[in-house]
Sequence to fold (680 residues):
Amino acid sequence: MSVAVASVKKLINEPADVVKESLVGLGLAHPDLVRIDFENQLVLRKDAPVSGKVALISGGGSGHEPLHGGFVGAGMLDAACPGEVFTSPVPDQMLAATKAVDGGAGVIHIVKNYTGDVMNFKLAAEMAEDDGISVESVLTNDDVAVEDSTWTAGRRGTGVTVLLEKIAGAKAEAGGSLAEVAAVARRVNEKGRSFGVALTSCATPAAGTPTFDIGADEMEFGVGIHGEPGRRREKIRPAAEIVEEMADAILGDLQPAKGANVLAFVNGLGGTPLIELYLVYAELAKQLEKYGVTATRSLVGDYITSLDMAGVSITLLELDDELTALWDAPVHTPALRWGI
Amino acid sequence: MSVAVASVKKLINEPADVVKESLVGLGLAHPDLVRIDFENQLVLRKDAPVSGKVALISGGGSGHEPLHGGFVGAGMLDAACPGEVFTSPVPDQMLAATKAVDGGAGVIHIVKNYTGDVMNFKLAAEMAEDDGISVESVLTNDDVAVEDSTWTAGRRGTGVTVLLEKIAGAKAEAGGSLAEVAAVARRVNEKGRSFGVALTSCATPAAGTPTFDIGADEMEFGVGIHGEPGRRREKIRPAAEIVEEMADAILGDLQPAKGANVLAFVNGLGGTPLIELYLVYAELAKQLEKYGVTATRSLVGDYITSLDMAGVSITLLELDDELTALWDAPVHTPALRWGI
Fold:
């Protein structure tokens, strides 16, 4: 007996055209910030390459918007390579991005820890080096939920990627060398930890149906940004209990210094409204107090999503003076902007 | 026979505490911008009252975040009065806000056209005048979908409210008089039109189940921001067709000047991911071209939502030089920020 699975409605045309058509919109909405290279499927900073500046590129499967294309612009990324939905971009695409943005000071590849992305960025970096471009690859693997996952060896790269792109982008904008920008970027990954929970599945445009089944009263505790399994499936609980366990997982692993300052990032996965995200922030603040940690910076909203998944991830980044100053530095991208 | 309706999962504690707990989070995440008056349930600009500046307040039922509390800060609102979810704030709350922000130059009440809001703001304005505070009320009624609705006589006030709060806020920040700020605000409402569609219902925390039933292959064409019925229920169609009809409805009513410049605002209703909003923007751009209209400014994201509803609204605002300059002026609120 077959069970009918309800299709998930989307504001799209042909499923195969979603990524390209969304990029058209991104380019048209922000012509002052970005240009789209449709041949290579790239989002490029309008004025790239910036001569003498270390360039930053990132990329990965689409479906996590605004990551990464929404973070292209002054003070953040020079280019993003969007793959098809939940599918790694290809090495040629990454190579084209690297060449397009290299201003002579080298290029940073920011790579979330998914096997496809890691392999393809590695090939692209080798090809770029063959072409005489210096490349430093920086891996993010901040998700403490699980070791190894559907598409990952080790920990998955999630929310810290957003913070790293902002902070390393500021270091490059300030004239940092390739080694200096890479060092700051790696420090962000070392000092950042994340944990996510899902209340519903996402549905890719191609499938049109939920990626995984989940009961009407269940949550996935420790979900990945493509719907990968987390630590366990369980009954949904009050936000206070959920956030307490998320914070314990993150802070138990991060082990911040007593009295540490952190950037507290409460991220919506795409289908959760802002009223809930701020409620989660309030619960997180209680937990931080318990640990003697102070959130001196915050970010609340949808920044690294899983299409239409309802859920939230929390990322904590232990700050020092330099990371704080780089976070505060001006940025002008479609999705993050201040000081400009 | 009773039919079981699946409850909608939310990241909350007690449903009755959602608004208050979310306000706690808003205040803690943005202590540099806002302070929360829990006694009167107000979001206040940190440095209110600003002496000599015309003050702007707005308010309405919660569930539309970031509207209005996320728009409190320099260059936008001086206070927001959040009611319970989808429930008007009360006159005493609005009066308390008016008194708290009056800097001696008068106060603008920005009122979305819903019967409860209109009535309560009217009473609050009368009480404030009795206390010697000059108040100008500005109504938004930009939704061209339907005349009269579940909670509205005339047209509903929707997306233009966001643009009006930004633009009138800039006029006040620049030293505009009460009459001048009110005049600019009314011009924004006159020159703005909106239209929304829903793919799914929202679910309030108190009910815990969808506000309205909608088929797995249906959309509500012309939906209101609380799930009020639109023009018709119909089968979902490709985004290109949906956006064409939305643009026709808006532009047919607005009748912009040939060659007009507009601000094109593609707004997510809470459950629709950004990848779809940018795709909608691309379709909208095609329609604007057809009408000989140019989008010289854009806003794409979730700014006036309906809890977790999947869907989108489009707002077009015909710009002139003053409105453009006021839009571009610096703003620093939790949800909109640039130039600061």
Q: What stands out?
A: Chain A has two domains: 16-190, 192-318. The first strand of chain A starts at residue 34 and ends at 37. The CA atoms of residues 191 and 318 of chain A lie 5 Å apart.
